[in-house]
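Lab notes, practical 5.
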Amino acid sequence: MEAFSVHGAPSEYVLLAGVLNELEGKLLERGLRKVLVVHGEKSWNAAKPFWPVFADVSYSEYSYSGECSLTEIDHLVELVTNQKFDGVIGVGGGKVLDLVKAVTHLVKKPSVLIPTLASNCSPWTPISVIYDEQGTFIRFDVYPVGASLVLVDPRILITAPVELLIAGIGDTLAKWYEADVQMAVIPDKPIALQISHYAAKQCKEVLLQHAEGAIQAARSEVLNEDFVKVAETIIMLGGMVGGFGDHYGRIAGAHAIHNGLTVLEETHHALHGDKVAYGILIQLVLEKKWEEIEKLLPFYQRLGLPISLLELGVTEIDEAKITRIAEKATHPSESIHVMPIGTITSEDVGRAIRELEGVCHSTNNLIS
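Output from the prediction step:
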């Protein structure tokens, strides 16, 4: 098998109500006395009620453009370098945190990540997904060093929009399907891959058991055990899959379909995790795992995850659009080609899309 490396975890991770009260002390432990805080408008509004007063650390704020783009990365690199910040704190969702990781990698400074959403494993992983200014996927970068510190206050996460939690559940569910399709065919897994495979299985098991309870908690904004378990599954277990599995535990077919969907402007409003959740179904069609699809569709419907292009905003579905999705998803650089099921062509993906659409639109047998 190919060589792989382990990036198991951030240097320090704490989930605790009130944990931001420890932020200044943890910054000083790291010698960070002048920091830049990068956030979005909504994420900063969510975090501000819990933000501590610093006595010995100074910070400046930067509100990002909304995309983790090359232009934004370059701008922040210049800012951090010119103003001689000791480190960068990211406060927000996946794109903010990915942006901070990209910047701190280039300037060789530590990153501190404070998620305001339980929507992805970005707080855990040394990876940034890079988009252009229009929101079209370009690539993802893997860094040799992870975050110095990750602080999670579940009281912040519980106030996030429920649809973002649901999308995070869809994105994390993909950890099992995208890891298993690669690892199931490896007969004698090294210990790190065994950890990754187990974490991926737990992603599926915990979400199937606790997702609905977590969504109920989010709707009422009252913390419960389901919510905390799901939040840590999304952030920690999801991150461990790729952290211990490297490329064997990262993206496969589902994320390639997500990337294919980004070529359609109609899907730009759809959340990353929603598109990945749809991608899981297409991947399973390609694997001919219809029994698994039959089990997932009711779960998707109870949570509100999309099972068709229509539910992703594509109101007029034609061959040209299906072809565009399929061609992007099967570009030679795409992750769909790690699936050990033979050569996957754009025609195969187009056929899988049509098959799934046919099932979801012509019969209720699988989705009742």
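Observations recorded by the TA: Residues 162-362 form a domain with the Dehydroquinate synthase-like, alpha domain fold (CATH 1.20.1090.10). The first helix runs from residue 23 to 29.
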